[in-house]
Design a protein that fits this description.
By secondary structure, the protein is an alpha+beta fold. It has a single domain, classed as Arc Repressor Mutant, subunit A. The protein has six helices and three strands, in the order ααβααββαα. The longest helix has 14 residues.
Length: 119
């Protein structure tokens, strides 16, 4: 089965925001933003233990169908790549803002930031 990747002009803001509305998918985006193209299995290690392959597959599909990632077969694995250029063209600054708002990258999910104090 060939995965669906929307063309650049078919990427819709509502779909991107919906896909990014999940902490696990935000971590996936952060991993790809910081490390570049990665096999699915390597990205999965940043999400913690005990996550089933079917759950990971679901998250890859949601991100792919929204136009956030490319998913390309490479031997026995799929390579995941962030569609930064396409997203920046469609929604300038959105991806950078989202990535900047995610906590520091750590295995097991995004780190929680300490609340700001008013000074």
């Amino acid at each position: 089965m060939v995965p669906h990747h929307p063309a650049r002009d078919q990427i819709e803001l509502a779909n991107v925001l919906s896909a990014l509305g999940n902490p696990m998918r935000l971590t996936i985006v952060r991993v790809l933003a910081e490390t570049g193209e990665r096999p699915c299995g390597q990205v999965g290690t940043y999400l913690g233990e005990g996550i089933s392959k079917s759950t990971l597959t679901h998250h890859w599909r949601v991100l792919r169908d929204a136009g956030v990632i490319w998913q390309q077969p490479a031997g026995r694995e799929n390579l995941l790549t962030l569609r930064k250029e396409d997203l920046d063209d469609r929604f300038p600054g959105l991806l950078d803002s989202v990535v900047a708002g995610i906590g520091d990258l750590a295995p097991g999910g995004p780190a929680r930031r300490a609340p700001r104090t008013g000074r």
